[in-house]
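I hope you will forgive my troubling you with a question about protein structure. Could you please explain, in whatever detail you think fit, how the C-alpha cells follow from the sequence? Thank you for your consideration; the sequence and its C-alpha cells are set out here.
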Amino acid sequence: MELQIPTPVAILSITIILFACISSSLSSSLSPSNLHPLVVDSMIEHLNYTAISEFRLLNRRRILQCSNPNPFLQINVSGNTTIGNEEYLTVNVTGVLVPADSDWVAMISPSDADVSDCPLNKALYVETGDLSDLPLLCHYPVKAQYVSKDPDYLSCKKKECKEYKDGKCAVTTCGGTLTFHVVNIRTDIEFVLFAGGFATPCMLKRSNSLTFANPNQPLYGHLSSIDSTGTSMRITWVSGDKKPQEVQYGDGKSQTSEVSTFSQDDMCSNVLPSPAKDFGWHDPGYIHSAVMTGMQPSTSYSYKYGSDSAGWSEQVQFRTPPGRRIK
C-alpha cells in the first residue's frame, strides 16, 4: 500500500472524521473542549503510524506540574523499600479531595527519570513519520493504571477526615489502591500520580524510590538445543553483573559463561537517531550464555547458574531431547 499525500481539502475531511471517531471512543477527558488543537493534531497524525491506544499516545503529550494546592495528597507503596525479583506491589493514593476518572499512576524507572517534556526529542521522532509540533516525554513509563481501577475510588468509599471543626469533620478526602506486578529490572523505580488522563497529563505527586534487593541477580534462564544429538544444551540468562558466571549441572560439571550486552548506540537508526535510543530505552543488563556438554539424550538433569558474588538461580530440572536416530 502506498502512502499518498492528501490535498488540503482531504486533510480537513480526514481530520473531522478521525477526530469524531477518536472522541467517541476515548474518555470524556479527551473531548474537544478539553484538548488543545496541537494535541488533537498530534493524535490524528499519530494514528497513521502506530497502533492506537491512549497509553501509546502518551509520549506525544506535554507533561506539566499540576497547579495543586492540596496539602493532603500522598502516594506511597506498602511494604519495604527494597523489592525482590518478582512482587505484586500495593500502591496507595490518599488525600484526594475530588477523585476523577482521569487520575492515573505511572511506574517510572529509573526513579530519577525526567518525566517532563523534552523538546529536543522531536528531531529523534521524525524517523517514525510523526511530524507533530508536540514534544516527547524524556522517558516512557514502564507501566500505568487509572486509579479508577479501584472500584471504591470514584465513589469515595475510602474516606478519611483530615480536618475537624467544632468537633465535626470539615475536610474529607478519598483514596484508591492499585496493584502493580513488578519484576527485577535492576534500576530503581518510583510511582508518579498524574491528573488529566493520558491526553493532557500533569504531575501531582511522586512516591519515594524503591530499589531491588539484588540488581545483579542472575535471572530469566532460557534453555535451547544447539544440535540434534541431545547431548548439549545452551543456557542463556541475564544479570546486572558483567563478570563471567557459570552454569553448574549434572554431577559436578560446570561451564563458564560468555558475556555480551548492547547499548543505545547499537539501536537501529538511519541519518536521524531512532526513538529506541531515547525515551523508549532501558538498560538491558548483561546477557550470559554457556553450553552444557557431555550429557546423554532423553536423560533428566538439574542445573543452576550465577556466581557467588552476584547470586545463584534456583536449581532447575530439565530433560534432554531424545536425539537423532541414525538408520
Q: What stands out?
A: The two ends are 50 Å apart (CA to CA). The longest helix spans residues 8-25.
